[in-house]
């Protein structure tokens, strides 16, 4: 796949979305009679008003006044939470993906996303980010963390490549100069290159996140100061008494010139070994180290549905909201499914159960979690928007309270991204990214499925506006 230009798209987004939604843009908005949910503390404050000016919250309380020109929105006793974050998505895998992705996020109350790898040139990603911030394009806040670095030839098109420590340092210099928010390690890096990448990222003042490379131990990544890790399987693997042997087997095979088929075979064989050698005491030690280091985990547990064939029916509404060309692509044979061995398929239920058990232990050990999905047109059936709510439901099913699950999508992400105007609280000086709900989400997350209103960067999308966005997507999806 080659890179392409998106000037026409940006124009379409600007004109199209603004006209479709007729979102209310006012410099000052007074939201009255809401119950503010403090997700960090688990407390409620009823009968509050929130004043929003130029995209920021400027007043919160029972006695907040507004100018005569302010737009007034009656919250009718609804529950107000900070906007949700999906901390692992890919919205730039095709020229027109944001057209669908951006409204889908807002419809589901997701007012912030972190992009973890893209086909668009960085300048065009930044141009879209700027237009969203300026209010010219309707969409969630965008963190551009997709500077993924892999060994050549690269697992995906358009990656940064590094096969030596020298190349790692050069690549980080380029990433820093281009203005990315982070350096993302990818799976096939060798250990020496990976360690140089970690050091160079930190020297450049960049966050260092991503996959734990397949030949690197989780403990090595902790010692290297990796700030965030994507996906969850490598945590369960580090709880195996055979982690070292599994890594050595792959290193030896690759050093001996094994072809890609053999490499995938070795990686696939790990599932059985992990199930046989996962150790509770070792796991607690590993998780305590992760928690102590503050290593953030973006679990993307919903990805398992793709591998187990838990896919929506073709006529499901969620299928109708995405372009037909994407639905067709999702229906074609997938290289990841084809790489699954019979053994992996047979063990899938047990492997998923072990991941979930390990996930609950991680949460209880204090490992910081960022709710995330890997949503992308390039990842079949991982829709934009919907799966974040599925992921949060899964956290509750596994054993988190609704408040704890909500924390991973509202409080943890902006604090990890170190945003000056967002920390998961609803207070003066904070960005007006908010969701108004019918019911108290601390009692259950079902109410997230149908928000009364979503406020993105101070722009109010009431239920009617959200319904119009949804109707537009359904029309385009046909
Ligand atoms: Zn991803």
From TrEMBL:
UniProt entry keywords in alphabetical sequence = Hydrolase, Signal
Signal peptide, first to last residue: 1-23
Q: Where is the Amidohydrolase-related domain?
A: 79-459
One short Pfam name that applies is: Amidohydro_1
Do the record's keywords include Hydrolase? yes
Per the record's keyword annotation, is Hydrolase included, yes or no?
Answer: yes
Q: Which GO terms describe its molecular function?
A: hydrolase activity, acting on carbon-nitrogen (but not peptide) bonds
Kindly give the PANTHER family that the UniProt entry links to this protein: ALPHA-D-RIBOSE 1-METHYLPHOSPHONATE 5-TRIPHOSPHATE DIPHOSPHATASE
Q: What is this protein called?
A: Amidohydrolase family protein
What organism is recorded for this protein?
A: Jannaschia pohangensis
């Amino acid at each position: 796949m080659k890179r392409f230009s998106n000037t026409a798209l940006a124009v379409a987004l600007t004109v199209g979305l603004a006209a479709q939604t007729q979102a209310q843009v006012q410099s000052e908005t007074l939201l009255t009679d809401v119950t503010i949910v403090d997700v960090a503390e688990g407390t409620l404050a009823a009968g509050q008003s929130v004043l929003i000016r130029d995209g920021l919250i400027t007043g919160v309380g029972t006695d907040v006044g507004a100018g005569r020109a302010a737009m007034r929105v009656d919250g009718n006793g609804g529950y107000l939470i900070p906007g949700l974050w999906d901390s692992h998505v890919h919205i730039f895998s095709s020229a027109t993906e944001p057209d669908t992705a951006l409204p889908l996020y807002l419809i589901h109350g997701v007012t912030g996303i972190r992009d973890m790898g893209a086909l668009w040139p960085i300048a065009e990603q930044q141009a879209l980010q700027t237009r969203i911030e300026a209010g010219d394009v309707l969409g969630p806040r965008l963190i551009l963390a997709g500077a993924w670095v892999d060994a050549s030839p690269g697992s995906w098109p358009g990656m940064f490549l590094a096969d030596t420590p020298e190349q790692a340092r050069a690549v980080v210099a380029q990433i820093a100069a281009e203005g990315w928010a982070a350096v993302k390690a990818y799976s096939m890096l060798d250990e020496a290159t990976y360690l140089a990448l970690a050091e160079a990222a930190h020297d450049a003042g960049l966050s260092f996140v991503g996959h734990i490379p397949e030949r690197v131990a989780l403990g090595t990544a902790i010692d290297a100061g990796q700030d965030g890790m994507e996906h969850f399987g490598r945590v369960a693997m580090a709880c195996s008494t055979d982690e070292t042997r599994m890594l050595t087997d792959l290193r030896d095979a690759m050093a001996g010139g094994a072809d890609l088929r053999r490499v995938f075979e070795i990686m696939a064989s790990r599932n059985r070994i992990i199930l046989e050698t996962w150790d509770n005491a070792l796991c607690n030690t590993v998780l305590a180290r992760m928690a102590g280091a503050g290593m953030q985990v973006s679990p993307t547990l919903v990805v398992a549905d793709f591998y187990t064939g838990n896919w929506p029916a073709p006529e499901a509404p969620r299928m109708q909201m995405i372009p037909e060309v994407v639905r067709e692509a999702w229906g074609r044979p997938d290289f990841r499914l084809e790489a699954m061995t019979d053994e992996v398929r047979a063990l899938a239920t047990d492997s998923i159960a072990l991941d979930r058990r390990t996930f609950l232990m991680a949460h209880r050990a204090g490992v910081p979690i960022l709710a995330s999905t890997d949503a992308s047109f390039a990842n079949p059936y991982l829709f934009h928007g919907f799966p974040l709510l599925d992921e949060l439901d899964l956290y509750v099913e596994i054993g988190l309270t609704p408040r704890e699950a909500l924390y991973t999508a509202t409080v943890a992400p902006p604090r990890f991204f170190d945003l000056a105007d967002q920390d998961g609280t609803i207070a003066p000086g904070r960005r007006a990214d908010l969701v108004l709900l019918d019911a108290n989400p601390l009692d259950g997350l079902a109410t997230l499925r149908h928000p009364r209103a979503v406020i993105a960067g101070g722009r109010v999308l009431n239920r009617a506006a959200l319904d119009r966005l949804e109707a537009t997507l359904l029309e385009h999806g046909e």
